[in-house]
Structures are given as structure tokens and as C-alpha cells.
Amino acid sequence: MKKPLIIANWKLNGNQYFVNIFLEKLCYKLKKKKYNISIAPSSIYLNKAIQKTKNSCIKICAQNVDINKFGAFTGDISAEMLKNMGVKYVLIGHSERRIYHKETNKEILKKFEIIKRNNLIPILCIGETLKEKINKKTKDICLNQINLIIKNLGIKAFKNSIIAYEPIWAIGSKIPIKIQEIQKVHNFIRSKIKLYNKKISKNIIIQYGGSVNHKNAKQILKQPDINGILIGNASLNFNNFIKIIKIIYNI
Ligand code: PEP
Q1: Mean pLDDT calculated for residue range 229-250
Q2: In Å, what is the CA distance from 8 to each residue of 11, 30, 64?
């Protein structure tokens, strides 16, 4: 079994001091280890994070990318810039960007394409709202969101790509998550990919995100179709984050 991929999504949090200290301590704790750990800091700290983690197993993830290659797009960052800097993963389709930045499927598709073209690894976030869950639309929503890629770019686009199932109702929420239900959704996503390509469905990392913490992480990752976790809140506290890593990697 592959080592689970643990990604910390720091969102709009932290400052220079936080990034320095956190990554110094993390590199020290993970010295000589070969775990699959990634940190997604604010874009302004990407370069610092890359320098700080250079000789460690920690890889850096961008929280966003622009759809354009270059040009008059003030404030934006291109996939080529991320690649040149040494970024490995890029989050796209996160519900916070879909909601607060009105990101459309068309833009998410373009981002996926440009990330792949620059040999970066897209982490496509998908998932339903609470209303959609109550109305039993979870599978339809997830299927539509993965079909956006399959129908437009072909199933091969999912080779060396990652899907993060992040039910919107579970993000930063107090609603208890039912791990068996999450596993079922992951299994559904994998089974749909399998209809197109068995190898890709077997190898693709399908991460779970939504209120993961040191109490539920181990149980979540015991599920056969959950290959990693995307952590928001709990990744901002060094001790909590290390606790999760220790639980998962048995150290
Ligand atoms: C996220 O927003 O990607 C996330 C998983 O957040 P949290 O862990 O805080 O629910």
C-alpha cells in the first residue's frame, strides 16, 4: 500500500514567523523520513516554504493558480511560475474558491489543463453541500465534478492527478462525519474512474478533507479507498499536526 498523502491547507493563515518556525520544527521532526507530507501555505510564502523544506520529504502545494499563461492579469500567478519555483501540487476547485471567488467549472477545467501542461500535480477538490447531501445528491455532484475532467480532457488526465473529496458541510464544521459514508463516496468515485481505466482507478490518490483531526485521522485512513487527507484547521497547530503524522506513520 502506498504511503498516505497528508496535505496541510493553511489557507489565509500564518505569517513569516509562523512559516519559519513551523517548517523548521517539522523538518527537524521528519529528518531522514520518507513520508508523503505536503504544506500549502499562502502564495506569498511559497518560495520561503520551498527553501525551508529543500532537504526533507515535505513537498509544497499551491492553493491556487491562474488560468492564463502570462499577460495583463494583475495579482495572478501562473502554473509556469509555480513550476519554476519548485511547487509540486496545486489545489483547484476548493469550495472556498468556488463560493467566494465564484470559480466556475470552465475555469476549474482550464486550471486543471494548465497545471498538467506544466507537469504539476492537480488536486481536484470535489464535494456536495449540506442541502445536496440531504437531498441524496452526493454521488451526482461528485460524478459531475469528475466528469468535467473526463469528458473534456479524457481519462488519462487523471493519471498522476489527485482527487480530494471534501464535502462542503464537513469543512471546518461540527457536523460529525461518518467514516463508512465517506468510504462509500470514495469507492463510488474510484468505481466510476474504473469504468474508463482500471490502472488509473487503482493508482489515483483519492484524499479526504473536512474536519480531519488527530482523533479521526487513523480511522479515516484505514478505509480501503481513502489514500490521503487534506487538513485545514488542525494543520495550523504544530502539535496537532505532528500528532496526526505520528498516528498515521506509527512513530
Ligand atoms: C479544507 O478546507 O480543505 C479543510 C479540509 O478544512 P478543515 O480541515 O478545517 O475542515
Answers
A1: 96
A2: 9, 15, 14
